[in-house]
Amino acid sequence: MRMPVIAGNWKLFKTIGESVALVNELKPLVANNKGVEVVVAPVFTALSRVSDAIAGSNIKLAAQDCFWEEEGAFTGEVAPGLLKDAGCSHVIIGHSERRQYFGETDLTVNKKAKAAIAAGLSAIVCVGELLAERESNQTFSVIETQIKGSLAGLTADDFAKIVIAYEPVWAIGTGKTASDAQAQEVHIFIRQLIARLFNQSVADAVRILYGGSVKPDNVKGLMAQPDIDGALVGGASLKAEPFAAIAAFNV
Ligand code: PEP
């Protein structure tokens, strides 16, 4: 009942031309994918051109971040409404690289998620523990704090526009994937937490993606877990074939 999502985070890679070329290559490879939502997240400067390139296809467009105000004297920021204007349906919020290098906190993630929803975007809200936190048995408390803070004040209705991405920081870009069981135990923890904080039907419906070195050869095992509803893919999304192979996990 939960439509899986396979989202590619292109991070700070690719020019406009390279981005358009990549989606043009990807389009026929995912054209017949049934029962999966395919999303790509290029850099800001490529969004509008990629939006034109994917028109009429089954690929959706995400930005990698947004601001929480719609306009004003906020030099350098990009508003959710402008992302919508550029053709986005989704925005990634609170990626661990933003938390690590750009001072993103649960409070700013929360403001951005609310602003994204208000603009009609789906927010892919990222959470995940550091290696030191996992090794000191703090994974669940860290995730609980991040979920509570990042999703504070949302209504049950808002959850139609929320996708959660669990991305253990130690697995991002490292080639180390959480085992299927390690990922599943955090995913079910998040779902049960959402049930407690909001309600059971919100928890049953919310998509929870796994992210962290997802590749064509490990996606099936991850996707076979009952509470893993998709993947947020970094490195393997930068080429059409591996990303399309990941998006074809169910064939
Ligand atoms: C990411 O950027 O969200 C990510 C999971 O990267 P990678 O797949 O390269 O680990």
Question: What's a concise summary of this model?
Answer:
The protein has 251 residues and is an alpha/beta fold. It contains 11 helices and 8 strands.
Bound molecules: phosphoenolpyruvate
Assembly annotation: single chain
The whole-angstrom Rg is: 17 Å
Characterize the biggest β-sheet.
8 strands, parallel, barrel
Coarse shape: globular
Main sheet: strand order:
1-2-3-4-5-6-7-8
What is the count of DSSP helices, taking H or I runs of 4+ residues? 11
What structural class do the secondary elements suggest?
alpha/beta
Residues in helices, as a percent range: 40-55%
Which stretches are low in confidence, meaning pLDDT under 50 for 5 or more residues running? none
Estimate the mean pLDDT confidence. 97
What's the total count of β strands? 8
Beta-strand portion reads 15-25%
The H-and-E topology, N to C, reads as EHEHEHEHHEHHEHHEHEH
Query: Distance N terminus to C terminus?
Result: 17 Å
Structural notes for this entry:
- This protein has 251 residues and is α/β, with parallel strands linked by helices.
- It is globular and about 45 Å long.
- The mean pLDDT is 97.
- Helix 1 links the parallel strand 1 and strand 2.
- The protein has eleven helices and eight strands.
- Bound molecules: phosphoenolpyruvate (PEP).
- Phosphoenolpyruvate (PEP) binds at residues 9, 11, 167, 172-173, 211-214, 232-236.
- Phosphoenolpyruvate binds at residues 9, 11, 167, 172-173, 211-214, 232-236.
What are the defining features of this structure?
globular; alpha/beta; 251 residues
